[in-house]
Amino acid sequence: MKQAKSVGTCELCGREDVERTVHHLVPKDEGGTHGTTAWLCKACHRQVHALYSNKELAVRLNTIEQLRGDEKIWRFIKWIRKQRGEKRVKVRRSKTKKR
């Protein structure tokens, strides 16, 4: 299935005029296929999935507010907000992430 894309404001970092993809707040493989979604810029979307397991996203980080409140992603958000929208960002996986 092809990922839906659009240009607009990232719901996580707030950057404007960025290419965005649909993020399932509860991952599809955790039962969120028809659940709530959010439009995230590619950088934020990749970073969310690099830092957290699908189980962790489903159980404790299943809203934009919960994601923004988590320290690991918040440090990234503070940094990415200063970057140009078209900048390609390298994602680092968390050493503590469990699959």
TrEMBL record:
Pfam family, one: HNH
Residues annotated as transmembrane: none
CDD domains (UniProt xref): HNHc
HNH domain residues: 10-50
InterPro entries listed in its UniProt record: HNH, HNH_nuc
UniProt cross-references to Gene3D superfamilies, sorted A to Z: 1.10.30.50
GO molecular function, one term: endonuclease activity
Domain of life: Bacteria
Stated name of the protein: HNH domain-containing protein
Biological source species: Marinococcus halophilus
